[in-house]
Amino acid sequence: MNAAAAGKVYPEAPFTVDPGRVAAFRGVFSQVEGVPVTFATAAEFTVIPGIVADPEVAIDFSRVLHGAQEYEFRRPLREGETLAIRSRIESIRSLGANSFLVLVTELVEPGGEIVCTARSTLIERAAD
Amino acid sequence: MPSPARVEAGSELPTRSRIVTAEDVKAYADAGGDANPLHQDEAVARAAGFPGIVAHGMFTMGHLAACIAEWAGGPERVRRLTSQFRAPVFMGEEIVAGGRVKSVDTERALALVECWVTVERDGRTEWPIKRGHAEVLLGE
Predict the structure, then answer these.
(1) Which of B32, B61, B113, B131 places its Cα 20 to 30 Å from the Cα of A66?
(2) Domain spans, chain B
């Protein structure tokens, strides 16, 4: 991982809270109503593959693990709404031979209000 | 639905259990958009040093979120959720999600919950999720 990529901001992209996809999420977790809390990670995954493949970040995908995850909601996500996704690399740190990348993704209403902030920590394990 | 009158520090959430299957993990990969082969391909998982396919951390966290949402009276009441992924989960294992109210903020009508997911493996308790935290809106 390239520590100099810390602070990098990715282009804003739209994300629709697709009712069919929400239903699939509910099905996986046996929930009957609402938008599952962790559905926000479907939004994160519109950008994560691009970051993992970003040569500037230089992640070895074969050694990546998900270390931690956080969500903070100002209000729940609503089925059918389209939000803007804003992602940035908050930090890249090394601890021993492992590297830790923290990605912050905001889901933003058309009016500019942040609905949800998701924070993912990706760990690149030491090479053998 | 929890209300501040009934929820107090030390209250335990009902635990939620499930057996993890490759079919369910594949369903999560498709719904969540996480196509990492570590979660679907035995050979890739073994090459990475695991004995078999590993469930996504987000599969385990999704299960924890369902445990919290069920107790809260719906996912819309969960305003914050955090997890640290501390141990892998393998196919065929039973994951058990649980939590305990640490404190109640009556002014904001929020319960602060400590939560976790455990799995019994080789006679030991492992913690796929440890030190999780949730903030849950109480009452109306």
Answers:
(1) B113
(2) 16-137
- Per-residue pLDDT tens over the stretch A47-100: 988 898 899 999 988 888 899 999 999 999 999 999 999 999 999 999 999 999
What is the extent of the structural domain holding A63?
Answer: 3-124
Instruction: Give A105's pLDDT tier (boundaries 50, 70, 90).
Output: very high
B89 touches chain A (CB under 8 A): no
Q: Across the interface, do B85 and A67 touch by the CB < 8 Å criterion?
A: yes
| Cβ–Cβ contact B61 with A under 8 A | yes
Q: Say how many CB pairs under 8 Å bridge A and B.
A: 99
**Number of other residues whose CB lies within 10 A of the CB of residue B106:** 10
CATH number, position A77: 3.10.129.10
- The model's pLDDT over A111-124, given as tens digits with 9 standing for 90+, comes to 999 999 999 999 99
Blockwise average pLDDT, block size 10, chain B, 140 residues: 74 97 96 89 92 96 98 97 97 98 94 98 97 92
Distance, in Å, from the CA atom of B89 to the CA atom of B39, rounded to the nearest integer, reads 10
The distance of Cα A22 from the centroid of its chain, to the nearest Å, equals 17
Interchain pair A41, B58: CB under 8 A: yes
* Number of structural domains in chain A: 1
Q: Considering only CA atoms, which of B68, B67, B71, B64 is closest in space to residue B2?
A: B71
Report the residue of chain B nearest A61, measured CA to CA: B36
Among chain A residues, CA nearest to B60 = A29
Question: Which of B30, B31, B69 shows the shortest C-beta gap to A31?
Answer: B69
Residue among A33, A42, A70 whose CB faces B33 most closely: A42
Architecture of domain B16-137: Roll (3.10)
Question: What is the C-alpha to C-alpha distance for residues B89 and B67, in angstroms, rounded to an integer?
Answer: 17
